[in-house]
TrEMBL record:
Organism: Pangasianodon hypophthalmus
Protein name per the record: Coronin
Coiled coil: 454-481
Top-level lineage group: Eukaryota
The family this protein is said to belong to: Belongs to the WD repeat coronin family.
Keyword tags: Coiled coil, Repeat, WD repeat
Domain DUF1899: 30-94
The keyword Repeat is assigned to this record: yes
An example molecular function term from Gene Ontology annotations: actin filament binding
Keyword Coiled coil found: yes
UniProt GO BP: actin filament organization; cell migration
Length: 482
């Protein structure tokens, strides 16, 4: 028989916990939100899978400095006598040789780069030299320095720091410069189709599309958040001072047209807020995070509803789930490391390893290397996890540039990631209509050269037609003899 002083562990807990705290604990157990992303696990890859000995740009511009797709990783690097970025096939890990060729056509430092979502070999770059250039990277990467772009877009009078390809329209690119100007380009024609002027009264901090490209969202140094009609260039709705602080604000569209912003309070505390553009007066939620000075770059995954916040100069990546229930933006977890990040690339969903339950992959830039960081949801089953991988946006555009500028909308064309993604269609071919290109840098001699190209092409087509006619005639003669 137990002694008088013995108390069961169950009774001991009951005795030591006051009744009001017991009730509080039971209630908190009931209100813990269930989510399949509560245990998202971030992990850096092994050292031999990093890209070493790369001189990452020392520029202080607040862009990602890195862009990735299922074929390549591109990073802005230090370059003497102009601006450059390096493009590597994903498989080319380890130490990168100093003689590795770069894309080096700009005369000023490169500020932003972005891969085309509809062709994994096409990348755009914006620079301090006020120009935007479109480059075609050969499969397997560069073997010699690339100095001549496929298209050069001249229209900004100050440096160009923001680039964003249209998510569903082929060959439509948005650029924003320090001249407070947003330009929408038909890249195949080399033409500025829409110039959004006199809307922004100061420098533009961020500019992005919504999921189907029917709206543009900008944040500006004049402390205003604006939702624009891209083809008309008009303001649909705007919000004054989404964050009280004077430091830069970043904004992205999230699920159901809502807007997520990152900024600073009056006391320089970093904040994240969620807004409904239909009632901009008050945020749906506003949370204070910490007192660090780095601008938080948001990356939103519409398939999972997770937003990842990566601060320049931070050594961590926070992630939150955006839902329809208060407080709307739910903190999930944080990936931490010892070294701070100078930039961050974000892999499109179709480039992930679905058999490893990978839901996101970042490419973190250090002083001298690029380190992939993998986000996974641990699962015991080896089967395809349909709840983690709903159909996602694929590489096929749903509308051509000319049609989109004429008013046609294009919804995203979704693909399944089951069995790993295998491309069923070729990269959307990047065609430049040379005879219709009209950039301000085109000289009379260049225009004459373009006309010569067209004449040569027409001659070649004529010769091919004649050859086909002769062959058809020959086949007919042979058939009649038999």
């Amino acid at each position: 028989m137990p002694s008088v002083g013995w108390i069961s562990s169950q009774n001991r807990n009951r005795i030591r916990t006051p009744p009001h705290l017991q009730l509080q604990f039971i209630m908190s157990r009931k209100v813990v939100r269930s989510s399949k992303f509560r245990h998202v696990f971030g992990q850096a890859v092994k050292a031999d899978q990093c890209y070493e000995d790369i001189r990452i740009s020392q520029m202080t511009w607040d862009s990602n400095f890195c862009s990735v797709n299922p074929k390549f990783v591109a990073m802005i690097v230090d370059a003497s006598g102009g601006g450059a970025f390096i493009v590597l096939p994903l498989s080319k890990t380890g130490r990168i040789d100093m003689s590795q060729p770069t894309v080096c056509g700009h005369t000023g430092p490169v500020l932003d780069i972005e891969w085309c979502p509809h062709n994994d070999n096409i990348i755009a770059s914006g620079s301090e030299d006020c120009s935007v250039m479109i480059w075609e990277i050969p499969d397997g990467g560069l073997t010699t320095p690339l100095k001549e772009p496929v298209v050069k877009l001249d229209g900004h009078s100050k440096r160009v720091g923001i680039l964003s390809w249209h998510p569903t329209a082929h060959n439509v690119l948005m650029t924003a410069g320090c001249d407070n100007l947003v330009i929408l380009w038909n890249v195949a024609r080399g033409e500025a189709m829409v110039r959004i002027e006199s809307v922004h009264t100061d420098m533009i901090y961020s500019a992005c599309w919504n999921r189907d490209g029917s709206r543009i969202l900008t944040s500006c140094k004049d402390k205003k958040l604006r939702v624009l009609d891209p083809r008309k260039g008009t303001v649909i709705t705007e919000k004054d001072k989404p964050h009280e602080g004077s430091r830069p604000v970043r904004a992205v569209f999230v699920s159901e047209g809502k807007i997520l912003t990152t900024g600073f309070s009056r006391m320089s505390e970093r904040q994240v807020a969620l807004w409904d553009p239909n009632s901009f007066s008050e945020p749906l939620t506003l949370q204070e995070l910490d007192t660090s000075s780095g601008v938080l770059l948001p990356f939103f995954d519409p398939d999972t509803g997770i937003v990842y916040l990566c601060g320049k100069g931070d050594s961590s990546i926070r992630y939150f789930e955006v839902t329809d229930e208060a407080p709307f933006v739910h903190y999930l977890s944080m990936y931490s490391s010892k070294e701070s990040q100078k930039g961050m690339g974000y892999m499109p969903k179709r480039g992930l390893e679905v058999n490893k339950c990978e839901i996101a992959r970042f490419y973190k830039l250090h002083e001298r290397k690029c380190e992939p960081i993998v986000m996974t949801v641990p699962r015991k089953s080896d089967l395809f996890q349909e709840d983690l991988y709903p159909d996602t946006i694929g590489p096929e555009p749903s509308v051509e540039a000319d049609d989109w500028f004429a008013g046609k909308e294009g919804k995203p064309i979704l693909i399944s990631l089951k069995e790993g993604f295998v491309a069923t269609t070729k990269n959307k071919e990047f065609k430049v209509i040379k005879s219709l290109m009209s950039t301000t840098s085109s000289s009379g001699g260049q225009g004459h050269g373009n006309g010569g190209d067209v004449q040569a092409l027409q001659k070649e087509v004529k010769e091919l037609r004649e050859m086909v006619e002769q062959l058809t005639k020959r086949v007919s003669e042979l058939e009649s003899k038999s």
